[in-house]
Amino acid sequence: AAGSMKPERLVALCVFGLFVCVHADAGNHQSSHHHSEQDDSDDIYGASDSNPRADASLEDEEFIGFADEPPTEKKQRVTAKPRPKPTGFRLRAQKHYYYEIGALFFLALFVINFFVGKNKNQRLADAWMIVYWKLLQEQFSLPSPTDESVWEKERQNEFTLYSTGRAHCTSMTTTLQLRKRHDLFSLLYELIAPAKDTLTFDVAMNDDDMESFVFAACNKRFEKHLKKQRNDLGLYAVAATCAVSDAPPNLSVLSEFPELADEVLSAEVVRTLAKKMHHFKYMHISDQDGAQLPPAEGSTAPVPSTPAPVKRVLRLQLFVPKAEHIGEIKDLVRLLFFLIDHLPNIRLSQPAKAKAEKARQLAQETYMKALHRERQEAAQRRKADKKRQEVELEESQVANLSREEKLKREAKAAKAEIKKRQPRVKLQRMG
Q1: What pLDDT digit, counting tens, does each position of 284-296 carry?
Q2: For residue range 26-41, what is the model confidence (pLDDT) as tens digits?
Q3: How many alpha carbons lie under 13 Å from residue 362 in its C-beta half-sphere?
Q4: Which of 49, 134, 248, 375 has its CA 20 to 30 A from that of 64?
Q5: Three-class SS of residue 177?
Q6: How many beta carbons lie within 10 A of that of residue 307, not counting itself?
Q7: DSSP 3-state assignment of 412?
Q8: What pLDDT digit, counting tens, does each position of 221-242 carry?
Q9: How far apart are CA 23 and CA 278, in angstroms?
Q10: How far apart are CA 264 and CA 182, in angstroms?
Q11: Residue closest to 364 by CA, chosen among 284, 293, 266
Q12: 10 Å Cβ neighbour count for 363?
Protein backbone atom coordinates (compact mmCIF):
# COMPACT_ATOMS: atom_id res chain seq x y z
CA ALA A 1 0.00 0.00 0.00
CA ALA A 2 2.91 2.35 0.74
CA GLY A 3 4.44 1.71 -2.68
CA SER A 4 1.25 2.80 -4.48
CA MET A 5 0.59 5.86 -2.28
CA LYS A 6 1.38 9.19 -3.91
CA PRO A 7 3.79 11.62 -2.19
CA GLU A 8 1.09 14.30 -2.15
CA ARG A 9 -1.19 12.03 -0.13
CA LEU A 10 1.65 11.31 2.29
CA VAL A 11 2.11 15.04 2.82
CA ALA A 12 -1.60 15.49 3.52
CA LEU A 13 -1.56 12.50 5.89
CA CYS A 14 1.44 13.95 7.73
CA VAL A 15 -0.21 17.32 8.24
CA PHE A 16 -3.44 15.67 9.40
CA GLY A 17 -1.60 13.46 11.90
CA LEU A 18 0.26 16.41 13.43
CA PHE A 19 -3.01 18.34 13.69
CA VAL A 20 -4.73 15.43 15.49
CA CYS A 21 -1.86 15.08 17.98
CA VAL A 22 -1.75 18.79 18.80
CA HIS A 23 -5.56 18.98 19.09
CA ALA A 24 -5.69 15.96 21.41
CA ASP A 25 -2.97 17.41 23.61
CA ALA A 26 -4.78 20.74 23.86
CA GLY A 27 -8.08 19.01 24.78
CA ASN A 28 -6.41 16.90 27.43
CA HIS A 29 -4.75 19.98 28.91
CA GLN A 30 -8.11 21.77 29.21
CA SER A 31 -9.83 18.75 30.80
CA SER A 32 -7.04 18.24 33.33
CA HIS A 33 -7.17 21.94 34.20
CA HIS A 34 -10.95 21.70 34.73
CA HIS A 35 -10.62 18.63 37.00
CA SER A 36 -7.92 20.29 39.08
CA GLU A 37 -10.15 23.34 39.72
CA GLN A 38 -13.06 21.09 40.72
CA ASP A 39 -10.84 19.18 43.17
CA ASP A 40 -9.68 22.42 44.78
CA SER A 41 -13.26 23.57 45.28
CA ASP A 42 -14.14 20.22 46.88
CA ASP A 43 -11.24 20.61 49.33
CA ILE A 44 -12.45 24.03 50.39
CA TYR A 45 -16.16 23.37 50.75
CA GLY A 46 -16.22 19.57 50.99
CA ALA A 47 -16.38 19.46 54.81
CA SER A 48 -20.03 20.57 54.87
CA ASP A 49 -21.19 18.48 51.89
CA SER A 50 -19.60 15.14 52.66
CA ASN A 51 -21.77 14.27 55.77
CA PRO A 52 -25.31 15.68 55.63
CA ARG A 53 -26.34 14.01 58.99
CA ALA A 54 -23.55 15.73 60.84
CA ASP A 55 -24.69 19.01 59.33
CA ALA A 56 -28.28 18.45 60.59
CA SER A 57 -27.14 17.69 64.15
CA LEU A 58 -24.93 20.72 64.10
CA GLU A 59 -27.87 22.86 63.07
CA ASP A 60 -30.04 21.48 65.93
CA GLU A 61 -27.34 22.02 68.50
CA GLU A 62 -26.62 25.41 67.11
CA PHE A 63 -30.11 26.78 68.02
CA ILE A 64 -30.34 25.28 71.55
CA GLY A 65 -30.46 28.13 74.06
CA PHE A 66 -30.21 30.69 71.39
CA ALA A 67 -32.74 33.02 73.06
CA ASP A 68 -31.12 32.85 76.52
CA GLU A 69 -27.44 32.97 75.72
CA PRO A 70 -26.12 35.44 73.11
CA PRO A 71 -23.27 34.22 70.86
CA THR A 72 -19.91 34.90 72.38
CA GLU A 73 -17.73 34.15 69.36
CA LYS A 74 -18.05 34.79 65.64
CA LYS A 75 -18.28 31.75 63.49
CA GLN A 76 -15.08 31.25 61.60
CA ARG A 77 -15.06 29.86 58.08
CA VAL A 78 -13.26 26.56 57.80
CA THR A 79 -10.55 26.68 55.16
CA ALA A 80 -8.62 23.68 53.93
CA LYS A 81 -4.86 23.51 53.88
CA PRO A 82 -3.26 24.14 50.50
CA ARG A 83 -2.71 20.98 48.52
CA PRO A 84 0.97 20.03 48.33
CA LYS A 85 2.57 20.13 44.88
CA PRO A 86 2.89 16.78 43.13
CA THR A 87 6.21 15.06 43.45
CA GLY A 88 8.48 14.31 40.53
CA PHE A 89 7.10 10.78 40.30
CA ARG A 90 3.50 12.03 40.03
CA LEU A 91 4.50 14.60 37.42
CA ARG A 92 6.08 11.87 35.35
CA ALA A 93 2.99 9.72 35.73
CA GLN A 94 0.70 12.55 34.55
CA LYS A 95 2.78 13.32 31.41
CA HIS A 96 1.22 12.49 28.05
CA TYR A 97 3.31 11.48 25.02
CA TYR A 98 1.34 13.16 22.25
CA TYR A 99 4.35 15.10 20.94
CA GLU A 100 6.51 11.98 20.97
CA ILE A 101 3.83 10.04 19.12
CA GLY A 102 3.54 12.88 16.60
CA ALA A 103 7.32 12.90 16.06
CA LEU A 104 7.40 9.14 15.50
CA PHE A 105 4.45 9.44 13.13
CA PHE A 106 6.23 12.16 11.14
CA LEU A 107 9.48 10.13 11.07
CA ALA A 108 7.64 7.09 9.75
CA LEU A 109 6.02 9.20 7.02
CA PHE A 110 9.42 10.68 6.12
CA VAL A 111 10.95 7.22 5.68
CA ILE A 112 7.98 5.90 3.69
CA ASN A 113 7.96 8.99 1.47
CA PHE A 114 11.70 8.61 0.82
CA PHE A 115 11.32 5.16 -0.70
CA VAL A 116 8.07 6.01 -2.52
CA GLY A 117 9.52 9.20 -4.07
CA LYS A 118 12.81 7.51 -4.91
CA ASN A 119 11.06 4.66 -6.74
CA LYS A 120 8.78 7.07 -8.61
CA ASN A 121 11.74 9.11 -9.91
CA GLN A 122 13.54 5.93 -10.94
CA ARG A 123 10.46 4.70 -12.82
CA LEU A 124 10.19 8.01 -14.67
CA ALA A 125 13.87 7.90 -15.67
CA ASP A 126 13.55 4.29 -16.84
CA ALA A 127 10.41 5.13 -18.83
CA TRP A 128 12.26 7.93 -20.67
CA MET A 129 15.19 5.66 -21.45
CA ILE A 130 12.93 2.91 -22.83
CA VAL A 131 11.25 5.33 -25.25
CA TYR A 132 14.31 7.33 -26.40
CA TRP A 133 17.18 4.87 -26.26
CA LYS A 134 16.65 3.72 -29.84
CA LEU A 135 16.61 7.35 -31.05
CA LEU A 136 19.93 8.02 -29.29
CA GLN A 137 21.44 4.95 -30.93
CA GLU A 138 20.38 6.30 -34.32
CA GLN A 139 21.98 9.70 -33.71
CA PHE A 140 25.22 8.80 -31.87
CA SER A 141 27.75 6.07 -32.39
CA LEU A 142 28.28 5.94 -28.62
CA PRO A 143 25.02 6.98 -26.92
CA SER A 144 26.44 6.21 -23.45
CA PRO A 145 29.89 5.44 -22.02
CA THR A 146 28.94 1.79 -21.41
CA ASP A 147 26.87 1.50 -24.62
CA GLU A 148 23.90 0.46 -22.45
CA SER A 149 20.64 2.20 -21.63
CA VAL A 150 21.69 3.12 -18.10
CA TRP A 151 21.56 6.55 -16.50
CA GLU A 152 24.40 7.89 -14.38
CA LYS A 153 22.65 8.71 -11.11
CA GLU A 154 24.12 11.89 -9.67
CA ARG A 155 21.46 12.30 -6.94
CA GLN A 156 18.14 10.75 -6.05
CA ASN A 157 16.43 13.21 -8.41
CA GLU A 158 19.16 13.86 -11.02
CA PHE A 159 20.23 11.55 -13.85
CA THR A 160 22.80 12.27 -16.59
CA LEU A 161 23.83 10.63 -19.85
CA TYR A 162 26.92 11.47 -21.94
CA SER A 163 26.78 10.76 -25.70
CA THR A 164 29.49 11.14 -28.37
CA GLY A 165 30.10 10.27 -31.96
CA ARG A 166 28.02 12.55 -34.19
CA ALA A 167 28.61 15.04 -37.01
CA HIS A 168 28.83 18.79 -36.24
CA CYS A 169 29.22 18.29 -32.46
CA THR A 170 31.74 16.81 -30.08
CA SER A 171 29.35 15.55 -27.39
CA MET A 172 25.90 15.86 -25.87
CA THR A 173 25.05 15.75 -22.16
CA THR A 174 21.48 14.83 -21.25
CA THR A 175 20.37 15.82 -17.73
CA LEU A 176 17.07 14.68 -16.25
CA GLN A 177 16.28 16.94 -13.28
CA LEU A 178 13.25 15.62 -11.41
CA ARG A 179 11.34 16.91 -8.43
CA LYS A 180 12.65 15.96 -5.00
CA ARG A 181 9.86 13.50 -4.39
CA HIS A 182 12.00 11.59 -1.89
CA ASP A 183 12.29 14.64 0.39
CA LEU A 184 9.17 15.33 2.44
CA PHE A 185 10.26 18.87 3.30
CA SER A 186 10.70 19.67 -0.40
CA LEU A 187 7.18 18.42 -1.08
CA LEU A 188 5.85 20.67 1.67
CA TYR A 189 7.75 23.62 0.14
CA GLU A 190 6.31 22.82 -3.28
CA LEU A 191 2.87 23.55 -1.87
CA ILE A 192 4.02 27.20 -1.85
CA ALA A 193 6.40 27.18 -4.86
CA PRO A 194 5.46 24.40 -7.32
CA ALA A 195 8.27 22.74 -9.29
CA LYS A 196 8.36 20.70 -12.50
CA ASP A 197 10.50 17.93 -13.93
CA THR A 198 12.92 19.18 -16.60
CA LEU A 199 15.05 17.58 -19.31
CA THR A 200 18.12 19.50 -20.54
CA PHE A 201 20.27 18.76 -23.59
CA ASP A 202 23.72 20.41 -23.72
CA VAL A 203 25.30 19.98 -27.16
CA ALA A 204 28.94 21.08 -27.60
CA MET A 205 29.16 22.26 -31.22
CA ASN A 206 32.29 22.17 -33.37
CA ASP A 207 33.99 25.55 -33.77
CA ASP A 208 33.95 25.29 -37.57
CA ASP A 209 30.27 24.37 -37.76
CA MET A 210 28.79 27.38 -35.98
CA GLU A 211 29.10 31.12 -36.46
CA SER A 212 29.75 33.60 -33.64
CA PHE A 213 26.32 34.73 -32.42
CA VAL A 214 23.98 34.53 -29.44
CA PHE A 215 20.34 33.50 -29.83
CA ALA A 216 17.53 32.28 -27.57
CA ALA A 217 13.86 31.40 -27.85
CA CYS A 218 11.84 30.76 -24.72
CA ASN A 219 8.46 30.81 -23.10
CA LYS A 220 7.63 34.38 -22.10
CA ARG A 221 7.17 33.38 -18.48
CA PHE A 222 10.85 32.42 -18.22
CA GLU A 223 12.45 35.24 -20.21
CA LYS A 224 13.56 37.24 -17.17
CA HIS A 225 14.87 34.15 -15.41
CA LEU A 226 16.77 33.07 -18.52
CA LYS A 227 18.52 36.45 -18.81
CA LYS A 228 19.70 36.17 -15.22
CA GLN A 229 20.85 32.60 -15.72
CA ARG A 230 22.65 33.24 -19.04
CA ASN A 231 24.46 36.58 -18.79
CA ASP A 232 25.60 36.45 -22.44
CA LEU A 233 21.97 37.10 -23.43
CA GLY A 234 21.90 40.33 -21.44
CA LEU A 235 25.21 41.45 -22.95
CA TYR A 236 24.76 40.61 -26.63
CA ALA A 237 21.13 39.73 -27.41
CA VAL A 238 18.12 42.02 -27.80
CA ALA A 239 14.43 41.34 -28.32
CA ALA A 240 13.53 40.21 -31.82
CA THR A 241 10.40 39.17 -33.70
CA CYS A 242 9.64 36.00 -35.60
CA ALA A 243 8.42 36.53 -39.17
CA VAL A 244 6.51 33.22 -39.29
CA SER A 245 2.80 33.89 -39.07
CA ASP A 246 2.05 30.71 -37.09
CA ALA A 247 4.40 31.63 -34.23
CA PRO A 248 2.77 31.10 -30.82
CA PRO A 249 1.97 34.33 -28.93
CA ASN A 250 3.82 33.23 -25.78
CA LEU A 251 7.11 32.67 -27.66
CA SER A 252 9.82 35.20 -26.79
CA VAL A 253 12.86 35.63 -29.08
CA LEU A 254 16.24 37.14 -28.12
CA SER A 255 18.80 37.56 -30.87
CA GLU A 256 22.13 39.32 -31.39
CA PHE A 257 21.19 40.09 -35.01
CA PRO A 258 17.62 40.55 -36.31
CA GLU A 259 18.14 38.30 -39.34
CA LEU A 260 18.96 35.32 -37.11
CA ALA A 261 15.34 34.95 -36.01
CA ASP A 262 14.29 33.98 -39.54
CA GLU A 263 17.33 31.74 -40.03
CA VAL A 264 16.92 29.69 -36.84
CA LEU A 265 13.13 29.75 -36.46
CA SER A 266 12.09 28.36 -39.79
CA ALA A 267 8.48 27.46 -40.55
CA GLU A 268 9.08 23.82 -39.58
CA VAL A 269 10.66 24.75 -36.25
CA VAL A 270 7.88 27.20 -35.37
CA ARG A 271 5.23 24.63 -36.29
CA THR A 272 6.77 22.08 -33.92
CA LEU A 273 7.06 24.62 -31.10
CA ALA A 274 3.44 25.70 -31.55
CA LYS A 275 2.22 22.12 -31.09
CA LYS A 276 4.37 21.39 -28.01
CA MET A 277 4.63 24.82 -26.41
CA HIS A 278 3.40 23.52 -23.03
CA HIS A 279 6.47 21.22 -22.89
CA PHE A 280 8.97 23.81 -24.19
CA LYS A 281 10.95 26.00 -21.75
CA TYR A 282 13.84 27.53 -23.72
CA MET A 283 16.40 27.07 -26.48
CA HIS A 284 19.81 28.75 -26.17
CA ILE A 285 22.50 29.00 -28.88
CA SER A 286 25.73 30.80 -28.00
CA ASP A 287 29.41 30.98 -28.87
CA GLN A 288 30.17 32.62 -25.50
CA ASP A 289 29.16 29.84 -23.11
CA GLY A 290 31.56 29.96 -20.16
CA ALA A 291 33.24 33.20 -21.28
CA GLN A 292 34.39 35.70 -18.65
CA LEU A 293 32.00 38.57 -19.21
CA PRO A 294 32.43 42.05 -17.68
CA PRO A 295 30.48 42.60 -14.44
CA ALA A 296 27.30 44.63 -14.52
CA GLU A 297 27.28 48.24 -13.34
CA GLY A 298 27.11 48.48 -9.55
CA SER A 299 27.95 44.80 -9.10
CA THR A 300 30.05 43.95 -6.02
CA ALA A 301 30.78 40.37 -7.08
CA PRO A 302 34.49 39.55 -7.45
CA VAL A 303 35.85 39.26 -10.98
CA PRO A 304 37.23 35.76 -11.75
CA SER A 305 40.98 35.93 -12.33
CA THR A 306 41.34 32.67 -14.28
CA PRO A 307 39.66 32.56 -17.71
CA ALA A 308 37.26 29.70 -18.30
CA PRO A 309 37.22 27.72 -21.57
CA VAL A 310 34.73 29.15 -24.08
CA LYS A 311 32.42 26.69 -25.89
CA ARG A 312 29.89 26.92 -28.68
CA VAL A 313 26.72 25.28 -27.38
CA LEU A 314 23.20 24.43 -28.35
CA ARG A 315 21.05 24.02 -25.25
CA LEU A 316 17.44 22.85 -25.12
CA GLN A 317 15.36 22.48 -21.94
CA LEU A 318 11.94 20.80 -21.85
CA PHE A 319 9.29 19.99 -19.28
CA VAL A 320 8.93 16.25 -18.70
CA PRO A 321 5.40 14.81 -18.78
CA LYS A 322 4.23 11.86 -16.70
CA ALA A 323 5.67 8.41 -17.30
CA GLU A 324 2.63 7.21 -19.24
CA HIS A 325 2.88 10.28 -21.57
CA ILE A 326 6.66 10.40 -21.90
CA GLY A 327 6.48 10.08 -25.68
CA GLU A 328 4.78 13.48 -26.09
CA ILE A 329 8.12 15.33 -26.25
CA LYS A 330 9.62 13.14 -28.99
CA ASP A 331 9.00 15.83 -31.62
CA LEU A 332 10.98 18.35 -29.56
CA VAL A 333 13.85 15.88 -29.15
CA ARG A 334 13.90 15.36 -32.91
CA LEU A 335 13.89 19.14 -33.29
CA LEU A 336 17.16 19.25 -31.34
CA PHE A 337 18.88 16.95 -33.83
CA PHE A 338 17.44 18.97 -36.70
CA LEU A 339 19.02 22.14 -35.25
CA ILE A 340 22.39 20.40 -34.86
CA ASP A 341 22.40 19.75 -38.59
CA HIS A 342 20.88 23.15 -39.43
CA LEU A 343 23.31 25.43 -37.56
CA PRO A 344 26.25 24.83 -39.95
CA ASN A 345 24.06 26.19 -42.77
CA ILE A 346 23.55 29.53 -41.00
CA ARG A 347 26.13 32.05 -42.20
CA LEU A 348 26.42 35.67 -41.12
CA SER A 349 27.07 38.54 -43.48
CA GLN A 350 30.41 40.33 -43.42
CA PRO A 351 29.07 43.41 -41.53
CA ALA A 352 27.45 41.10 -38.95
CA LYS A 353 30.71 39.18 -38.50
CA ALA A 354 32.67 42.42 -38.02
CA LYS A 355 30.08 43.68 -35.51
CA ALA A 356 30.18 40.41 -33.55
CA GLU A 357 33.98 40.43 -33.39
CA LYS A 358 34.05 44.06 -32.26
CA ALA A 359 31.46 43.38 -29.53
CA ARG A 360 33.50 40.47 -28.16
CA GLN A 361 36.71 42.48 -28.17
CA LEU A 362 34.97 45.28 -26.28
CA ALA A 363 33.63 42.81 -23.73
CA GLN A 364 37.10 41.33 -23.27
CA GLU A 365 38.68 44.78 -22.78
CA THR A 366 36.02 45.75 -20.26
CA TYR A 367 36.60 42.51 -18.40
CA MET A 368 40.39 43.05 -18.28
CA LYS A 369 39.92 46.63 -17.03
CA ALA A 370 37.61 45.41 -14.27
CA LEU A 371 40.11 42.70 -13.33
CA HIS A 372 43.01 45.24 -13.28
CA ARG A 373 40.98 47.65 -11.14
CA GLU A 374 40.11 44.91 -8.67
CA ARG A 375 43.76 43.86 -8.40
CA GLN A 376 44.81 47.47 -7.73
CA GLU A 377 42.18 47.81 -5.01
CA ALA A 378 43.36 44.56 -3.44
CA ALA A 379 46.98 45.79 -3.49
CA GLN A 380 45.98 49.09 -1.85
CA ARG A 381 44.06 47.22 0.85
CA ARG A 382 47.08 45.03 1.57
CA LYS A 383 49.35 48.10 1.73
CA ALA A 384 46.99 49.91 4.11
CA ASP A 385 46.70 46.83 6.35
CA LYS A 386 50.47 46.48 6.49
CA LYS A 387 50.94 50.15 7.42
CA ARG A 388 48.26 49.90 10.09
CA GLN A 389 49.96 46.86 11.60
CA GLU A 390 53.32 48.70 11.64
CA VAL A 391 51.76 51.70 13.43
CA GLU A 392 50.10 49.44 15.99
CA LEU A 393 53.39 47.60 16.59
CA GLU A 394 55.27 50.88 17.01
CA GLU A 395 52.68 52.24 19.45
CA SER A 396 52.88 49.08 21.53
CA GLN A 397 56.69 49.35 21.65
CA VAL A 398 56.58 53.02 22.65
CA ALA A 399 54.12 52.27 25.44
CA ASN A 400 56.64 49.90 27.04
CA LEU A 401 59.56 52.40 26.96
CA SER A 402 60.73 54.42 29.97
CA ARG A 403 60.49 58.23 30.14
CA GLU A 404 64.16 58.76 29.20
CA GLU A 405 63.91 56.42 26.21
CA LYS A 406 60.75 58.20 25.01
CA LEU A 407 62.57 61.59 25.17
CA LYS A 408 65.52 60.21 23.20
CA ARG A 409 63.13 58.79 20.63
CA GLU A 410 61.29 62.11 20.25
CA ALA A 411 64.58 64.03 19.90
CA LYS A 412 65.78 61.63 17.23
CA ALA A 413 62.50 61.96 15.33
CA ALA A 414 62.68 65.80 15.51
CA LYS A 415 66.25 65.80 14.20
CA ALA A 416 65.23 63.56 11.30
CA GLU A 417 62.33 65.89 10.48
CA ILE A 418 64.63 68.98 10.45
CA LYS A 419 67.09 67.21 8.21
CA LYS A 420 64.31 66.23 5.87
CA ARG A 421 63.15 69.83 5.50
CA GLN A 422 66.63 71.20 4.67
CA PRO A 423 67.25 71.87 0.97
CA ARG A 424 69.49 69.44 -0.82
CA VAL A 425 72.73 70.86 -2.27
CA LYS A 426 73.95 69.33 -5.51
CA LEU A 427 77.74 69.41 -5.91
CA GLN A 428 79.25 69.64 -9.36
CA ARG A 429 82.84 68.93 -10.20
CA MET A 430 84.65 71.74 -11.95
CA GLY A 431 86.66 70.30 -14.78
Answers
A1: 999 988 777 666 5
A2: 555 555 545 454 544 4
A3: 8
A4: 49
A5: strand
A6: 12
A7: helix
A8: 999 899 888 888 888 888 888 8
A9: 43
A10: 40
A11: 293
A12: 18
